[in-house]
Amino acid sequence: MQTKIAPSILSANFLDLEKEIKQVERSGADMLHLDIMDGHFVPNLTFGPGLVKQIRKITNLPLDAHLMISNPEFFIPKFIEAGADYLSFHIETDSEYKKLLNRIRKANVKAGIAINPETPLKKVGQLLNFVDFILIMTVHPGFGGQKYIEDCTQKIQKISEMINQNLSLIKTVPSPRLNRGAQESGIEIEVDGGINYQTAKLAKEAGANILVAGNFIFSSNNYKEVIKGLRNV
Ligand code: DX5
Ligand code: ZN
Predict the structure, then answer these.
(1) Fold that domain 4-232 belongs to in CATH
(2) Which residues contact residue 106 at a Cβ distance below 8 angstroms, ignoring those fewer than 6 apart?
(3) What is this structure's pTM?
């Protein structure tokens, strides 16, 4: 699967956000990662659908909204309306996962489930026919600029195997209900946290195809070079 680079604007200069977004767009980013934090699910606050709506107007990049919030059901419709193209919420929330994922897909938005470093993959395994992508956190969510947790590489590998097993199962048992997204095009694996050239390589080799990078891109003075470098590790 094609490698996609998703700069996380969490590490961008917010006073110059439009310029920053246009610059990563010109520098070859494939999508824009938007970290939504509520100060409850994670110990930090960022922004809401209002800003996402504004961002939608100034870029053609697909918007990847990562909801680190409790009770995602209240906000999912608002982020769809704001123009998200990829929308994920966390498995650690006590949600009606299948219902929410279906609601996202019905709006023609890619539906994703995000998972924290300590959370076992078991529950995610039951959702493989309902997701278009899985977001594996490789740091504890809440802040940019943290160090990649090495144990997570195994988890990427494991989910990759689970997806492949699920695919072959579906191929042998065709079901009219399972007729879009994951089965045809393959579920995407997104990694988020502490991505740099070394960790991007680990994640990619383990099966990830969407690499989120915040600090590594925005703290550099050549976004183009870093984005290209990450894509080609
Ligand atoms: C952390 C966020 C990440 C973060 C990644 O809670 O979900 O998207 O911005 O930033 P870096 O690449 O700096 O670890
Ligand atoms: Zn994120």
Answers:
(1) TIM Barrel (3.20.20)
(2) none
(3) 0.94
